[in-house]
Structure formats: C-alpha cells, structure tokens
C-alpha cells in the first residue's frame, strides 16, 4: 500500500495552483494524507480526483495570519486516526518540533492526542521542514512543504510517501523539480534541529 504525504501547501498564498508535479507523483496512491495548512479547500477536491484525501486542520484554516476561517468539512479534522495496511496512522498539524523538554515533547504530545491507542505512524506538518524520526516507537513523518520549503519564498519543495507492506511502514521524502520528483538529498539539507 502506498500513501501520498503532503503538508503546508498554502494555496493560493504560496502559488495560485499546486504544482502539477505533485498530482503526477501521487498517481496510483491509495490515499493522500495532508498535514494541514491547505488553506483553500478546492485543493482537497483536486487531490481527491487521485485518491481519498484526509486533511489535518491547521492554523491556516482557522483564520491564522488574517485568513478567512474555513468551514467545517468531513475531510478536515484536527486529529485523524486512519487504519491502513493493518496499521494505525495518526495525523495532526502540529507537534512540538523542535522539542522543549520536559513538557513539550513528542512522546507527551502523542499521549495527549491519542490517549486510547498510540499510532504506529504519525503524520504532521507546520514547520515546513521535512523530517522522518521515531519517537517512542512511533514513525513520525513531516513531508515538508511543496511550495514554502523551510518557510522560504515560493519554490519547489517536498512531498512524501508512506509505503506499508507486511505490517511494516517505510517513509520517504521526495524533492519536487521542474520535471518531476527526485529522492530528497538528506546530506545537503539544512535541518534546524
């Protein structure tokens, strides 16, 4: 099972439309998980032409930065729990990254958001910085932003994929280019933490 991961699209603030490379890259995925700050919900409609799409409600949907508050939509929730490929995938817009112990830690945030069952995988956004980590046994993935990578001006950013096979999850980050996508070069990335 392959799942497309995207976050912080900021459309139309970042760009009038989402890069077409994103839609081409997601062809064939079984679902799309958007880590929030989609801003305009017609982007969800476009992504749903490819696969069922779930979106974490971000501050950009709740009037952050003077933007209009977006209406309620069953495809958009603050916290998601999605069963896929025999795994529980959690999704929310914000987790404390970087962590600020002792109170603002990913482990504590996971327990707060998912009190009944810890997810196997957690998708999040907010920072615009691509990241794959394991916290307290949970695979945590931020696909970055396809339009505002690292909070910089509009340019080609990143998306991700979650592959689930035989009860095991594997995540990857991909860099958008003018002609498509290429594997993300972790060695040259500037991670703030």
The CATH architecture can be named as: 4-Layer Sandwich
**What general form does the structure show?**
globular
Number of self-contained structural domains: 1
Provide the structure class: mainly beta
Q: Sketch the topology as an H/E string, one letter per element.
A: EHEHEEEEHEEEEEE
Kindly estimate the percentage of residues that lie in beta strands according to DSSP.
Answer: 25-35%
Sequence stretches where pLDDT stays below 50 over 5 or more residues: none
Features:
3 helices; 32% strand; globular; mainly beta; 193 residues; Purple Acid Phosphatase, chain A, domain 2; 11% helix; five-stranded mixed sheet; 12 strands
Structural commentary:
The protein is mainly β and 193 residues long. The protein has one domain (2-188): Metallo-dependent phosphatases (Purple Acid Phosphatase, chain A, domain 2), CATH 3.60.21.10. Helices cover 11% and strands 32% of the residues. The protein has a seven-stranded mixed sheet. A five-stranded mixed sheet has the order 5-6-7-9-8, with helices on one face. The N and C termini lie far apart (31 Å). The relative contact order is 0.19. The mean pLDDT is 93.
């Amino acid at each position: 099972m392959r799942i497309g991961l995207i976050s912080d699209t900021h459309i139309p603030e970042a760009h009038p439309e989402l890069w077409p490379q994103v839609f081409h890259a997601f062809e064939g995925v079984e679902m799309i998980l958007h880590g929030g700050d989609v801003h305009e919900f017609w982007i969800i409609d476009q992504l749903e032409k490819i696969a069922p799409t779930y979106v974490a409600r971000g501050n950009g949907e709740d009037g952050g930065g003077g933007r209009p508050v977006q209406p309620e939509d069953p495809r958009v929730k603050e916290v998601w729990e999605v069963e896929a490929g025999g795994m529980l995938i959690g999704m929310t817009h914000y987790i404390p990254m970087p962590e600020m112990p002792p109170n603002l830690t990913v482990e504590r945030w996971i327990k707060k958001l998912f009190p009944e069952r810890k997810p196997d995988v957690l998708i999040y956004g907010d920072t615009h910085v691509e990241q794959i980590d394991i916290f307290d046994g949970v695979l945590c993935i931020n696909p970055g932003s396809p339009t505002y990578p690292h909070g910089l001006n509009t340019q080609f950013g990143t998306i991700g994929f979650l592959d689930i096979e035989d009860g095991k999850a594997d995540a990857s980050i991909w860099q958008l280019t003018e002609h498509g996508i290429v594997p993300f070069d972790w060695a040259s990335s500037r991670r703030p933490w």
